[in-house]
Please model this.
Amino acid sequence: MSALTVEEVDVLAQSARAPTEPLPRSLPDLLFRGALLEHTIPGLSWRGFVRLTQEVLLQTNGDAEVWARVAFARDVGRRHLGERALLEWPVVSSWFAALDNNAQSRALAHAVQSAADADLEAVEGYAASAEAWLDRVPVTAEALSLRGAVGRGYAALGEYGKAGVALERAVAGWFELGRVGDASHPLCELLRVRGIQRDAGAVTVLRNRVGAFLEATPDPTSRAFVELALGRALVQSGAGDDGQTALRDTATDWGQAPPHVQASRLRWLHYVAVTSADDAAASEHLAKLDDLRDEGQPYDSDQRYVARVDRGLAQGSVLTPDVEALVGLLPGGDEAARTLVRLSGGRPLADAMRDRAVVRRMAWEYRY
Model:
């Protein structure tokens, strides 16, 4: 399956700007390929992409395969918008059988990631099926992306042993292919997993991977993600001073990093300060979290509330108001809510929010 050409991108963008009846006959195929292969489509936002898929679905008469492919593309687009859209496992679809191995791996990666985001009950089955699939295909970039998605899926379930195995294989695969820069996603998640596990030995080994990644990768955003992940892992594995050094690395332009990366960095710097009773530093980091902005607007990050939970845990104070504020935050609170419910063994959210041990684990395992 080939990437979209400039001319095909223009067809998509023009169709989104001024839909016609009938729409171009090539549109279902372009939408499907765009969703499967592209991270961004020049001249077309993901919101516009989703609207266009809906127009096509309205004009699709009786062709079940076309409808299924466009619906898949629509839900991939919805995921790009941050919506929780569970993709059906596609291997039973006739359109899936027509794809080459690499495109099939891409489709499966989208499905696994959608389960991790939208439906934890579906994750284990999706991940296990994907691993069986990976055993039958050669190691390619697409297969490694799927392997990383499997690792993130297991991590979403709290299955950190299985997650670590999958993520180690994904990171090693990217390095073996000589595409070190493409290892950023599984490397970040692997660092998070090893930090949660307090595995100091594994984190020490991964520092060599991080060093090689930073040498090979000029992209400032990727570097910020990986430095953040390393700093957190060091803090969680007991190397707080080294963690602070990574989180303060002057070679990384933290001010240009995505706002959620800036927020998580400040949360972990605050964590170090509050757990070492450095009240002045803790207050400074919390104030910076509260002052964060995104494109000039106040940025009400979930990490502001997680940091306050950290403070309450360290100081032995009442947690409920801060946990309620975190869970009530939109968007973002749903992540905290489902983590609390998972960690409580499926108890009602109201009960999980009041269980100090569950809240402590939620904060420890929280994303980023």
User: Anything to note?
Assistant: The mean pLDDT is 92. The chain has 20 helices and two strands.
